[in-house]
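Researcher: I've been going back and forth with a colleague about how LURP-one-related family protein might be arranged in three dimensions. Neither of us has a model we trust, so I'd like an independent prediction. The organism is Streptomyces odorifer, in case that matters for your notes. Sequence below.
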Amino acid sequence: MRFHVRERIFGVGDDYWIEDADGRKVYLVDGKAMRLRDTFELKDADGRVLVDIRQKLVSLRDTMVIERGDEKLATVKRKRLSLLRNHFRVTMVDGTELDVSGRILDREFAVEYDGELLAQISRRWLTVRDTYGVDVVRDDMDPALVIAIAVCVITLAEKERND
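Model: Here is an independent structure prediction for LURP-one-related family protein. You can compare it with whatever you and your colleague have in mind.
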C-alpha cells in the first residue's frame, strides 16, 4: 500500500492530507495549534479520529505517544546510545520494538522489526515538491499506525534540528 503525503510547510495547525496511490484523500493529519505540546489527530476521510499523537510533556528525551481512543499503542523516541543521529525506537504497548532509521529530515527512512522491512518512507518516488511516499510493505501492518510513526519521527527530528 502506497500513500502520498503532501506537507504544508507554513500551514496553521499543520493540517495536511494523505492520499492513496490513485489520488484519493484517505487520511487527514490534523495538527492542533496553540497547544503546549505537539498534538495531532489522524482522521479518516469521513473525519473520524483513528489515532491521537501527543508529545509527552515530561520526559528526559523528547518522546511522542500514539493512542487509539484511550488505549496507548506505541511510544516513539530517539534510540539511546546510537551513533547514528537519525535512529528512533518505537516501543509498542506489547513490548515489541520497531527501529526507524535513515535520513529523516530528507524523508528517506525505513521502519523495521527485527531486520524485516515493514514500511519505507521516501521522496524518491515522487516529483511533487514537499511530498513524500509512505509504502507499507507488509499487509498485516496498520497503515494508520505506520503513518502516525512517520509523523512522530519527523516531528521529533525537526524539533531537535530547531533546538
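Researcher: What would you highlight for our discussion?
Model: I'd start with this: The chain has a mean pLDDT of 84. After that, consider the following. Residues 5 and 18 are 5 Å apart (CA to CA).
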